[in-house]
Amino acid sequence: MFELKKIGIVKRASALLLDVILLAVLTTGFMFLISLMCNYSYEEKLSTKYYTQWEDFRKDYVADVATYYGFDYEVNGDGSYVISKNGEKSSLDELMKSLDDSKGEDEGTKSAYDAYKKLPPVKTVNFQYKYVYNLLFMMTSVGTLLAYLVLEFILPIIFKNGQTIGKKVFGICLVRPNCVKITALSLFARAILGKYAIETMFPILLVFLFLFGGIGVLAIILLAALVLLNIILFFALKNRTPIHDLLAGTVAVDMKLQMIFQSEAELVEKKALAQREVVEQAKG
């Protein structure tokens, strides 16, 4: 009566899979709505336009300009390039500064300078790239947050006992370790602090930093460590509590078999009643 009725891993995994699918669909929907509000499509196309203009200029003029000003220019097999001078690594910005300083007065650089002046300024291009990057991250974080609020907080309050759609379908609910009903505060901590902030947004941030932030393999190591920690907690702890359940003080149990007490007072009362019954039976 006072023991937790644990559920099988397959049943729990099935509920999780359904919830993840629904979360992905809802997150995508929210991201689409946010993208319309922020005019993301236009900003992304503008960023692509800037990139194309600079790439065309680089392919048509940079090799000749680099040679003219004493730079070494090499194109790798993957399309990337390396600019150096006197054996030291340089950059496209340094090369363009040399071109800008000469203002195309030499016959060999006149056409390149005319084409260069038609390009969007480097500061504008960099700002646009950062803006699109930040916009994409904002869409992802806000869209995911709204999806978690709906699926992991609002609906479980409506369904009661912390049941998401996946948990309701597979007969799973949440209780505190002493079988007392969970509170809205613990449910919020589980959904937003545990699932959203630590288990979802932190990995997403690591992926963004890996792709755009230049932290490289460190992001992969941190991501693998988080996944490994969650796996260890799930299988090592008695109640199979991953990070989000550990933070919220909740346990997933079988809804049909579990006795759920509405409050601590009810739990104490039931335990006292059970104890009296045991004493009476012993006397009888």
Number of strands: 5
Question: Low-confidence stretches at least 5 residues in length (pLDDT < 50)?
Answer: none
Strand sequence of the main sheet, in spatial order?
1-2-3
Radius of gyration: 30 Å
- Major β-sheet annotation: 3 strands, antiparallel
Strand content: 5-15%
Name the structural class: mainly alpha
Number of helices: 10
Describe the structure.
The structure is a single chain. The chain is built from ten helices and five strands; from the N terminus they run H-H-E-E-E-H-H-H-H-E-H-H-H-E-H. A three-stranded antiparallel sheet has the order 1-2-3, with helices on one face. It has a two-stranded antiparallel sheet with strand order 4-5. The protein has helices at residues 9-38, 40-68, 92-102, 110-117, 122-159, 165-169, 184-213, 217-236, 243-248, 264-283; strands at residues 72-75, 81-85, 88-89, 172-175, 251-254. The protein is mainly alpha-helical. The model has no long low-confidence stretch (mean pLDDT 91). Helix 1 crosses helix 5 (122-159) and helix 7 runs antiparallel to helix 8 (217-236).
